[in-house]
Structures are given as structure tokens and as C-alpha cells.
Amino acid sequence: LEPNAGGENREENLRLLAEAGNELVFGVGFAFSEAVGNAAADFTDTQFAIIDDAANADVPNVTSLVFAEEQGSALVGAAAALKSTNGRIGFIGGVAGLGLIEKFQAGFEFGAQFINADIEIDVTYLTEFPDFAGFSDPAKGKEAALAQYEGGADIIYHAAGGSGAGVFEAAKETSEATGTKVWAIGVDSDQYLTAGEEVQEYILTSMLKRVDTAVYSTITKYINGERLGGVTVLDLASDGVGYSTSGGFVDDITDKLDELRLAIVSGELEVPTEPAG
């Protein structure tokens, strides 16, 4: 079931699924937080799971599935620093003030600065919480990206949901207008595979958030009769986050990225969850 455009029926959908006898019900996205909490309180024999939210961590029939976005973002930050030709890169976040997108920024900056301590990083957020329009405004994403490219950034990482399509368009437009290629970095899924063919060649890599792994592992636990509930953090060690290689644009630096990955997994390096600034 898919919520309506305003999301007012999220809880209604969860209740419909529980009433229909589904024994395990997923809410995909932190926007389901209140709805999952309310539904779980009334359907105590139904197991609920929610992606990207831990607000109901103490509710016994809710499994919270969250990701170490900062760790995956560190890898694409390192990729940006390794591929930048002028030592200036950018980050575009969808909505500031949630505490979530800041994790992406913190990891990106950490990875980039691990490679180049002197790298310059421009940061732009499209909207401030509680205005969620920053996740669904490609025109605004494009405008912000064009400004960063014009300011000298040659690679931009977006964590801006649907607004990221505008960042890809800006990379293409800037590259064609200047004759010098600039790059964009996708988020959550391998956006090289989902973006239009006309912008694929400008998507350097994507930070992968393995929602598929989270859902599959939760279903497997349920089928096997294992205990659910609590908070599950999917990180680099569990392959819950990572980076994509589609297009082959980072093939020449994967050894360096994998070295950083191993250092994070081993605990040698700890990636911050909040930006330093």
C-alpha cells in the first residue's frame, strides 16, 4: 500500500494490513514513525518494522531498522576527494535540522578530509525542518548544484531524495557548457541504474543504503522464529551501506576505498555522525 501525496493515511494503511492478517508489516521511511507506534499499540500480536527510525525502539512489537549512513558517505567522500581535480567539492542536503541528513554530511566530509585534509567542501541545504519540500524539488536541487559548480566545486554529493535529479541535470548542463566534466554522486540506491541515460555518464558513484538487506534479514528472522524488536543498525560490517561501481568511473580507486572501508570496519577509524562545523 502506498500513502497518499500528503501521507495522511499512513496509519490507516498499516492498520488495514494488520487487520487483513499480515503478521509482519513494514513502514518504509521515518515519516511512518508515529503511525507505526500507534498501530503497534493496538495490534500487539502483529510485528511491525520501520526503516530509518528508532523512535519506537522500546515498543516490543516494533523492529527499528537504521543505517550507518555516515560510514557509506565516508566512502563516497573519499571517492570525491580522489577524483576531484581542483580540491573543491560539494554536499547538497534535502532538509536540515532532522539530524538524519547531517549524518550523510558528516561522513562525506570525514572521508574527503581523510584523503585530502585541505579539501574545500561547500554545503547547501534546500529547506529546514519541518519543511520537507527539500526532498522533492528537483528544480531547487538543480539551482543549488549549479551555484556550487559555478563556485568551483567539481563533484557534488546529494542526500536530497527526489531533488537529486536536479543535481544530475546540473552536472550535465555544467559539463556541456564549460567543456570540463563535473560529477554528481547519488544516494541510497545505485542511481546510475535508475537515472536517465542522458545523465548517467555524470554519476560518479552512489552511496548505497541496503534497504533490501534490512528487509530480507528481518523477514528471515521472522520466518526462522528468531526474536524481533529493538534497533538493528546496518553498517559497513554487515554490508548495510556501501558504494556503487556502475559505469566503471571509480574502478581505478576501489583499492583505496576498500582500504578505508576495512579501517572503519576494524574500528581503526570512527566516522562521526555530526558535522564538525
Write up this protein.
With 277 residues, the protein is an alpha/beta fold. The protein is 40% helix and 22% strand. It is built from ten helices and ten strands. The chain has helices spanning 10-19, 33-42, 69-83, 101-115, 138-150, 164-178, 191-194, 197-200, 211-223, 254-265, and strands at 24-28, 47-51, 62-67, 88-96, 120-128, 155-159, 183-188, 203-209, 230-234, 241-243. Strands 5-4-6-7-8-10 form a six-stranded mixed sheet, with helices on both faces. Helix 1 (10-19) packs parallel to helix 2, helix 3 (69-83) packs antiparallel against helix 10 and helix 5 runs parallel beside helix 6 (164-178). The mean pLDDT is 97.
| Quaternary structure type | single chain
Number of strands: 10
N-to-C CA distance? 41 Å
SSE run: HEHEEHEHEHEHEHHEHEEH
Structural class: alpha/beta
Helical residues, percent? 40-55%
Largest sheet: 6 strands, mixed
Helix segment count?
A: 10
Q: Mean pLDDT score, rounded?
A: 97
Strand order of the largest sheet: 5-4-6-7-8-10
Shape: globular
Strand fraction: 15-25%
Radius of gyration based on Cα positions: 19 Å
List the uncertain runs. none
Short description:
It is built from 10 helices and 10 strands. The chain is of the alpha/beta class. Helix 3 (69-83) crosses helix 4, helix 3 (69-83) packs antiparallel against helix 10 and helix 5 packs parallel to helix 6 (164-178).
